[in-house]
Amino acid sequence: MKNTSVRKRGLIFIAIGWALLLIGDRVDELALSQGALVATYALAIASIILLTGYSGQLSLGHSALMAVGAYAAALSTNNLGLSPAIALVVAAFVAGIFGLILGFGVARLSGPYLAGTTLALAVSLPTIANQFEILGGEQGVAFDIGLPPARFGEEFSQYKWFFWICALAALLMIWLISNVLASRYGRIFRALRDNPVAASLSGINVGRLKVVAFSLSAGVAGLAGGLLVMLISGVSPSAFPLSLSFSLLTGAVVTGVYNLKGVMLGGLILVAIPEIAESVVSRIGGSEGFTVALPGFLVSALLILAVVFTPNGPGHLLHKKKH
Fold it and tell me: With contact defined as beta carbons under 8 Å apart, do 269 and 305 qualify?
């Protein structure tokens, strides 16, 4: 039965990947760029769902974990001469190790204390980055993956190459996460979330499993950070503001923080919000401050509406109405 479920999930993800490749051949470069960003945000949202939705640990500083992976990818390419594909693996690995170390420090924390610690990490990121010359200060570090392979032909654009990389990385990682959450570890994570005391009395090492969940989530976030700086061709403190953490958390809440099925919808929403804000500003006008603040306002309003009307995501609401 277990092997059947794994095979079924594998076939579903293969079908989604095939559909994305077909779509990628039929849309323009703007849509490809937006699709790559959707896949990147979906992966980052999946890392929050893994940590918060399944192990019950609230993080408000996931942008900092993404930044760790982003800097690791850029530095490993520029200073070590590694290929971009290996650099993305390094991004996930370094961020996972960072999450492991941080997890040991916050394993005893929960609720607002854990959230406050991760929030402080995200707030202090620009100051920390500016203290080390190797990180490039405010200018940051460039990350260029180069042109797509010549074997794909001259009509294969850079945007399509970005889309392929982001879509494939997101699908593979989300497939791995779904298999982990469907295994024994997923059940243990849910036990930690629902009742840590009962889990501890049943013989589960709560502290160790929290650290494992934090490390896995950080690794996924680090990969998402590496993909994001690939799209913007460089990493700097301004690329990972605190607002990014709140946007990702909003995406997770809107699509259902206890389920991975809606992560692509969450990524689509986060990409659409700036477009909606720009459209509103072009129609009604407004000052520069209003233009800058509107996307954040829309994210905040969306989070409030989601918490009030669909706290477990639209999928749970439809399932409830069906029954």
Answer: no
Place of tokens 């500016």: 130
Distance between CA atoms of residues 197 and 194, nearest Å: 9
Taking only Cα atoms into account, the Rg of the chain, rounded to an integer number of angstroms, comes to: 20
pTM: 0.88
Say how many C-beta atoms besides its own lie within 10 A of residue 46's C-beta.
Answer: 27
Closest to 40 measured CA to CA, from 149, 142, 164:
164
- Per-residue burial over 69-93, b if 16 or more Cβ lie within 10 Å, else e, is bbbbbbbbbbeeebebeebbbbbbb
Tens digit of each residue's pLDDT (9 = 90 or more) over 183-237: 888 888 888 787 777 877 777 777 788 888 889 999 999 999 999 998 888 888 8
Could you tell me the CA-to-CA distances from 301 to 4, 9, 142, 241, 295 in Å, in that order?
42, 34, 35, 19, 10
Q: How far apart are CA 211 and CA 109, in angstroms?
A: 11
How far is Cα 129 from Cα 68, in angstroms, rounded to an integer? Answer: 10
CB 208 within 8 A of CB 31: no
- What distance in Å separates the CA atoms of residue 185 and residue 172, rounded to the nearest whole number? 19
